[in-house]
Amino acid sequence: MTNYSFPDNFLWGGAIAANQAEGGYLEGGKGLTIVDLLPTGEKRREIMKGKVTSLHPLEGAYYPSHEAIDFYHRYKEDIALFAEMGFKALRVSIAWARIFPTGEEETPNEAGLQFYDDLFDELLKHGIEPVVTLAHFDVPVNLIEKYGSWRSRKLVPLFETYAKTVFTRYKEKVKYWMTFNEINMLLHLPFLGAGLVIEEEADRMQVQYQAAHHQLVASALAVKACHEIIPDAKIGCMLAAGMFYPYTCNPEDVFLAMEKDRESFFFIDVQSRGAYPAYAKRFFKDNRITITMEPEDEKILKEHTVDYIGFSYYSSRTTSTDPEVVKNATSGNVFGSVSNPYVSKSEWGWTIDPKGFRITANQLYDRYQKPLFVVENGLGAVDTVASEGEISDDYRIDYLRRHIAEMGEAIEDGVEIIGYTSWGPIDIVSASSGEMKKRYGYIYVDRDNEGKGTLQRIKKKSFYWYKTVIESNGEKLD
Q1: pLDDT tens digits, residue range 156-175?
Q2: Model pTM?
Q3: Rounded CA gap, 352 and 11, in Å?
Q4: How are beta strands 351-352 and 176-180 bridged, if at all?
Q5: One-character DSSP codes across 165-234
Q6: How far apart are CA 411 and CA 47, in angstroms?
Q7: Integer CA distances (angstroms), 259 to 93, 213, 256, 266, 328, in order
Q8: DSSP letter string over 136-173?
Q9: H or E element: which one contains 258?
Q10: Which domains, and CATH codes, for the chain?
Q11: What is the distance between the alpha carbons of residues 48 and 54, in angstroms, rounded to a whole number?
């Protein structure tokens, strides 16, 4: 393994989300949000795709987000463990409904504001930089019931008010922000990504892209507010990344892979370049999609672009125009992909492709020429606690070692990367499946898929490995 030279101020750390870690789902005046309505089991994926039958938790169903890993009460204990590993940064999200429980209050909820004050203070006490996402699969349920969530223009000023509120409150504590987590997920899991309930008879793409426009305008207004309120801060966008390979060198496969990549790049093209790309305009025309805009929208998008590109990378994808090949497609990591014979897969069918990480980083930097921030990367796997209490997760170490090495190669290629916050440094609820057995962390949490367990925290073998990686600034990966 080559030793790589990472920048001296590189932000090593981890990433979690409020809805997957905090719990305390109605404590401190918090209102209901999207993930509070997602139970475990088969119906979860249907709901995430927009087939929603109730906007209230159902009696008798188990909702893992309601308690999650109880980070809401245990954050000091967990941050102390992150500090022991040497974290330079922790990516978290603010739950919108902790600040504005219905999304429409004239004054924010002080208890919610104070919780994040305390959280950020605890991080800073340990020398850990907060990296904060404004909306991580998070819309107050009241706004879904009343307005249809992001399909309505009314959410734009409400989100702007929320953004201005937290920028003003935390301007001395938070210098790295992002607007929407994995904004392109809106096209794949519209309820999870944007709170969209899509009726059977609705024009699905029309609803999704109109909602996307509202999110893009809201993102630009948040960028504007951040630059005005916290001039020394940086604010970015965030993409669920992972390039598409053509299954063959057939030009039709190559063109389809390009189109699949553009499906995601569309969002970042607008947030980073400040305008709708020509290919998107043709796509709208071909699919009879009409985007309703306000007169000032194009100016807002143009003048308020992001400072950096945040992205998650778990796996690459492969696509084909051959119907026989497509028969064997999988839905690993939400994005459909035909099987790639040159790479392995995780227990959940996600492609393991470290080289794809380097390719994706180069692809993004070549396209945008803005700093990148790797804000999610990791391996979900089943961990076993040995009789002596040890957890040997060498498979996770191997995955992370190979991916960090390729990130080092990307930096050698000339790609500017400002930090790496691996996903789930402590075991949390899986967003896609609602499971606890799908673990990502360096720290084990004693909790099972039914919500049973003591919530005890146990250090895994990877805990000590990642500590060495950070201490050596990425030089010691073996």
Answers
A1: 999 999 999 999 999 999 99
A2: 0.96
A3: 24
A4: unpaired
A5: HHHHHHTTT--EEEEETTGGGGGTSHHHHH-----TTS-HHHHHHHHHHHHHHHHHHHHHHHHHH-TT-E
A6: 40
A7: 31, 19, 5, 10, 20
A8: SS--BHHHHHHH-GGGSTTHHHHHHHHHHHHHHHHTTT
A9: helix 251-273
A10: 11-471 (3.20.20.80)
A11: 12
Counted residue by residue, the chain has a size of 478
Q: What is the pLDDT of residue 387?
A: 84
* Whole-number average pLDDT of the chain: 96
Give yes or no for a contact between 307 and 234, defined as CB atoms under 8 angstroms apart: yes
Q: Per residue in 361-391, pLDDT tens? A: 999 999 999 999 999 999 999 999 998 889 9
Looking at 376, 409, 412, 471, which residue is catalytic?
376
3-state secondary structure at position 12 = strand
Q: Are 157 and 185 a contacting pair, CB within 8 Å?
A: no
pLDDT at 27: 97
Residue 376 annotated in active site: yes
Given a cut of 70, the residues of the chain with pLDDT beneath it are: 1-2, 330-333
Residue 192 burial (C-beta neighbours within 10 Å; 0-12, 13-18, 19+): buried
Location of structure tokens 């987000």:
65
Rounded CA gap, 18 and 184, in Å? Answer: 19
